[in-house]
Design goal:
Radius of gyration: 21 Å
Largest sheet: 8 strands, mixed
Shape: globular
Order of helices and strands: EHEHEEHEHEEHEHHHHHH
Structural class: alpha/beta
Strand order of the largest sheet: 3-2-1-4-5-6-7-8
Distance between the termini: 30 Å
Oligomer: single chain
Number of helices: 11
């Protein structure tokens, strides 16, 4: 795959471009964005080799779509309209059900591979792109059977070459699981940040007391609202379900404290400690 078009050259699109170029020096990376300033920055940083437009997609061997998920839903059918019969389109969105549904009856559905690389930081834009972001990370691929075998084979090799592990899942299960391990984490971080900021209005010293625990917990609150609001909207049902369970646990913790039942609180935390064995275990 030599002619590669990145629609969106921020953290994910830009990092993919860096790693793909590193492993495929002959590849030519074309950048597409609504903002010319974004493309200028991507050129200066060496993320892309050339600027392009949607009308150039007929020349693409591979199109990587890394834009907010609501924009992906709107634009994806048009992208598939424009590519050649041998071109492949992949998206990197954090939700999959709506994205897969919008192209389920498209004549070129076989030219599309739905994926979600589980990697990222709280930063956004071209300057956030980094080399090696995907090394050792899991890439969820949905409905792989709907993609032409020759194209899926090329894409999966490309992504395993840059260090990603591939896992297969249907879109519905993906969106349900990711609500727990990603979307809820972001909401928790945003709301913790909101709580502290509101308190800080009256207590100016509060941030002087914030340590590494606060910094790591609230890190995700620095993420882009432009990206995350559409994610929450598309995955609304699953996110509400996870929030209800989370709120129930918080309420239960509060009730234990009110009852001075610190033995039960200890047991709750001790039981939850086993998560370290799950997260830290080798895969």
């Amino acid at each position: 795959m030599k002619q590669i078009y990145a629609i969106g050259v921020g953290l994910i699109g830009g990092s993919l471009a860096i790693d793909i170029k590193k492993h495929n020096p002959d590849a030519i990376i074309h950048g597409i964005s609504r903002k010319d300033t974004t493309l200028n920055t991507a050129l200066e940083l060496g993320l892309i080799d050339k600027k392009a437009t949607l009308d150039d997609l007929e020349n693409a061997d591979l199109v990587i779509v890394s834009i907010p998920v609501d924009a992906t839903v709107k634009l994806l059918p048009t992208i598939l309209d424009k590519i050649s019969d041998t071109g492949l389109v992949v998206d990197a969105g954090s939700t999959k059900e709506d994205i897969c549904k919008v192209v389920e009856n498209h004549p070129k559905r076989r030219n599309f591979l739905a994926m979600h690389p589980i990697a990222g930081t709280e930063h956004s834009g071209p300057t956030a792109a980094i080399e090696g972001l995907f090394k050792g990370k899991t890439n969820i691929v949905c409905e792989v059977e709907k993609t032409t075998f020759k194209l899926q084979e090329k894409a999966l090799k490309l992504f395993t070459d840059i260090g990603m592990r591939i896992r297969y899942m249907n879109p519905k299960d993906h969106d349900r699981h990711i609500a727990y391990v990603s979307h809820l984490s972001h909401i928790s971080s945003f709301m913790l940040g909101k709580t502290v900021i509101e308190k800080e209005k009256n207590e100016r010293d509060i941030f002087d007391m914030a340590g590494s625990g606060f910094a790591s917990t609230v890190r995700l609150a620095k993420s882009s609202p432009e990206m995350w609001t559409p994610i929450f909207e598309q995955n609304k049902t699953n996110v509400i379900e996870t929030l209800e369970e989370y709120i129930n646990n918080l309420t239960h913790f509060k009730e234990l404290m009110a009852a001075d039942d610190f033995a039960a609180i200890y047991d709750e935390m001790k039981s939850t400690n086993r998560i370290k064995n799950i997260i830290d275990s080798p895969t």
